[in-house]
Amino acid sequence: MYEKYNEMTLISQPNEQKNPYEQAAQLVIEQALFRYEKEQLMKKIDKALISKDESLFLTLSTQYNELRSRYRHLEDVRS
């Protein structure tokens, strides 16, 4: 049913194969993962800024942009 995407994200069956409860549960899981990953990256970005580590900041910023891109479908969902 689920395929491992990376250590924090699961990819499941297409939405049209799920019932409404599965869709809602998947949305909650994805929102929680996004918030957690975003919070962790933001903390690391803040530390990189404080320590003036430009290369680390750029690396983390790229990861942050990739995270936002991966969870783009959640942008219109209000929590």
TrEMBL record:
Coiled coil: none annotated. It comes from the Bacteria. InterPro entries: IDEAL_dom, Virus_scaffolding_prot_C. Pfam families: IDEAL. Residues 28-64 form the IDEAL domain. This is IDEAL domain-containing protein. It comes from Thermolongibacillus altinsuensis.
